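Continuing the series of single-chain predictions for the mutant panel. This is the parent chain; the variants come on the following pages.
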Amino acid sequence: MSLADWDRALDRIEADLLQAEALAQDPQLILELEPWAPPTDLGPLPRALTDRARDLLTRQRNARQLIADRMDAVRRQRAVVTKVAGATGRERRPVYVDHNV
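Parent structure:
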């Protein structure tokens, strides 16, 4: 395939990566990602795109690590909440419903 085909494939990877990076920074974001499958018909990566591909790979690894770290923090927080609920003998439940939300 052509350089343009590879460039489009890397554009798609980068667009998904930008969303993952945004989500890693702000877990409150609600993002809808399109399902992705690696292209099978691109052939070898052109040398002209090697640096870009390498940069994207580094960014993906960093985003993956940040997301994993955030998930671990949430697990730890949840464990603390579970322990507190268990120690008090009851779960905390809302006492009112805010109809303005």
